[in-house]
Write a structure and sequence with these properties.
Blueprint: H1 2-15, H2 19-33, H3 41-53, E1 56-60, H4 66-72, H5 79-86, E2 89-91, H6 100-113, E3 119-123, E4 126-127, E5 136-140, E6 143-146, H7 147-157, E7 160-164, H8 166-170, E8 183-184, H9 186-193, E9 199-202, H10 209-222, H11 234-237, H12 241-244, H13 248-252, H14 281-284, H15 293-296
Parallel strand pairs: 1-2, 1-3, 3-7, 7-9
Antiparallel strand pairs: 4-8, 5-6
The structure holds iron/sulfur cluster (SF4) (2 copies).
Length: about 325
């Protein structure tokens, strides 16, 4: 173990990020969003222990890879450093070097070795129609594996599952009207197959990188976060967008924006779904804290279970 930590420390010297720097960053972020109480000095040693004992395996089904891209947009420290050197991410189809049978074999070896201890991240919906044949993810023991096979197998062995993005959480865009592939979110999939592993939903199209990293950090160090009725961590999805929007006073006064380029005025008449949406985008903001949807467009309710059908049309010209 000592040797492994020395190698890790050497890697961190090269990349310029340490576990302590990462945790400091997370703590700073957390302070702004009211979750600082979950991060304390004990977390540092817990995270070091998690590196040795708690791998994270990330798999992808019916996804556009946008959730991974959102995560990769994390800037300080860079997500590449977080994922490769801080969180023990041992499988990710988009960013790992291994491929094909070798990668699949390694995936199952890790799942066996850490049975009941690893966290499984699912990105994208799971198509259950046609015996799962709409989504073939690889080959194992000379047999084709569907996303259905993979989530059934790894879902039972995992200690916890994070359903990252609207599609993994609730079916999302692949499950929109028509849904010929039988696209299903993780919680519904687990109900279908009687799998009991706890699931944390991190919806969004895509989800904010902080929601993903913060939830993984919470799982690794403090266990499951408190969840709302839709399976989302209350620390990120506990407040209503409309109630906290900078335009709410204009809404109360009946002052409505007529076009998306109007700097002033509530955007409800343009299709804003803020009143039905729960997330902290209004204070966390996106693109390294630069802006958020309501600054330039409208909230389209991307974190809610009915998205996208329930919030369409997204934009309604006044
Ligand atoms: S712009 Fe949207 S979130 Fe903001 S006050 Fe109007 S309806 Fe509510
Ligand atoms: S403001 Fe609305 S549409 Fe934009 S990311 Fe947040 S929840 Fe999704």
């Amino acid at each position: 173990m000592k040797d492994k930590l020395m190698v890790l420390d050497e890697q961190q010297k090269q990349t310029g990020v340490s576990r302590r720097a990462f945790l400091k960053t997370i703590t700073g972020t957390a302070a702004g969003i009211g979750i600082s109480q979950v991060f304390n000095p004990v977390l540092i040693s817990a995270m070091e222990k998690a590196l040795e004992t708690h791998p994270v395996l990330w798999i992808q089904g019916q996804s556009c890879t946008g959730c991974s891209v959102s995560l990769l947009n994390s800037v300080d420290p860079s997500i590449a450093d977080i994922l490769l050197k801080v969180i023990s991410l041992q499988f990710h189809p988009t960013i790992m070097a291994a491929e094909g049978g070798v990668a699949m074999e390694n995936l199952f070896k890790i799942a066996e070795a850490y049975n009941g201890k690893f966290s499984l991240v699912v990105e994208g919906a799971i198509p259950v129609a046609a015996d799962g044949k709409f989504c073939i993810v690889g080959e194992f023991n000379h047999q084709e594996m569907t996303m259905v096979d993979l989530v059934k197998d790894l879902g039972k062995k995992a200690g916890s599952v994070l359903a990252v993005g609207a599609c993994a959480a609730y079916g999302g865009i692949p499950a929109a009207e028509g849904n010929v592939t039988g696209a299903t979110g993780v919680m519904d999939f687990f109900k279908l197959y009687g799998i009991q592993t706890p699931v944390v939903n991190i919806p969004g199209c895509p989800p904010h990188p902080d929601w993903i990293v913060g939830s993984i950090a919470h799982l690794l160090t403090k266990g499951l976060p408190e969840l709302d009725d839709d399976g989302r961590p209350v620390i990120f999805y506990g407040n209503n967008i409309h109630d906290n929007c900078p335009h709410v006073e204009e809404y109360d006064a009946g002052e409505m924006a007529m076009t998306l380029s109007d700097a002033k005025g509530c955007r409800m008449d343009l299709g804003c779904k803020g009143p039905d949406t729960y997330a902290d985008c209004y204070k966390r903001k996106w693109n390294s804290g630069m802006n958020w949807c309501v600054d330039n467009a409208v909230c389209i309710g991307c974190v809610e279970p009915g998205f996208p059908d329930a919030s369409s049309p997204f934009y309604e010209p006044a």
